[in-house]
Design brief:
Strand content: 5-15%
CATH topology of the domain at 29-98: Beta-Lactamase
Radius of gyration: 17 Å
Helix content: 40-55%
Number of strands: 2
Distance between the termini: 51 Å
Order of helices and strands: HEEHHHH
């Protein structure tokens, strides 16, 4: 027989995960997460959607080369490389990017 308390840690973890997801999605700062090896986007929040002009569903799983014109993709790649060299765990590189089309 399982006690009700056994589900408490899992429930707390789920609540924390929901809270963090809501925070990431609604914060007014762009949050963008990429895979370190192939640089595919794995997460972008609403603020990043507004900055880039793309919905997350369209960005997730793609690289900057698949989303942006070559000069912009090259700039993003250079920023990624600089970030990797100087601060592999976190980077804050403010940049203006030109988007190809409006948010859909």
């Amino acid at each position: 027989m399982t006690s009700p308390a056994c589900g408490a840690p899992r429930q707390a973890t789920e609540q924390t995960e929901r809270f963090l997801n809501a925070l990431i999605e609604n914060i007014r700062v762009s949050i963008i997460v990429k895979e370190p090896l192939d640089r595919r986007y794995v997460l972008i929040n609403r603020a990043a959607e507004e900055l880039y002009g793309y919905r997350a569903e369209r960005v997730i799983g793609k690289t900057p080369d698949e989303l942006f014109a070559k000069p912009t993709a090259d700039l993003i790649r250079a920023n990624d490389e600089q970030s990797r060299i100087s601060a592999p765990a976190f980077s804050f590189i403010p940049a203006r990017v030109k988007r190809r089309e409006p948010v859909l």
